[in-house]
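haha ok so turns out i had the wrong file open the whole time. this is the CORRECT one, sorry everyone. sequence first:
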Amino acid sequence: MSELALFGSILSTLIGGAVTALKIAIGAFAIAVSGGMLLAVTATFSRLRVLRLTIAAYTEWMRNVPALAHLFAIYFGLAAFDIRLSPLAAAILGLGMVGAAVLCDVFAAGLKSLHAGQREAALSVGMTPIQTLAHILVPQMLRVTWPTLGNYTSQLLKDTSIASAIAAPEIMFFARNLVTSTFETTLIYLAAMLLYASIVLPISWGFAKAERRMENKR
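then structure:
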């Protein structure tokens, strides 16, 4: 088999892992954005000090412990209590929880950067707190935090590679198996790099293009 044909065969095998990596990234992104938004709004506007301190403790813990350690704790630790998650579910949950802590700080900073008078004005004309958030504060906050959100999304896609440590069948899982069976280390990891780049770069460009459109609408 020629080098080109071998490279094509390797790439076709790794594409199956790319599908799993995208599933992990999409699931974790959904948890991270929804969880991060909820935590940020609560931390910014809650009058309960104990709640704000709890959120601060959560974000510090999740951000300062390696994501891989969280995946191990979820996948292996929960099994000790007869809670058994699949590698895919554990990866989605673990990366999503870490992402929620990261985006909590990002979204909270975005909300605090907005003028307080906007919220007060919206409430004074009869809008509910939920309506104020949905129609006034969150859209502006997303414009402010959009570049950081784009960077987080790109990093999340690359971080799916650690899910192979708990046997989630993503790109690096298949790459290591191929190396063991074929010993074509250079070709295999080159194919993996190209595959990651082919996924991450279009997403980065998409966020950048959306950012430029938002800037032009101002």
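Helices lie at 3-45, 49-64, 67-77, 87-112, 116-124, 129-159, 171-182, 185-217.
again sry for the mixup
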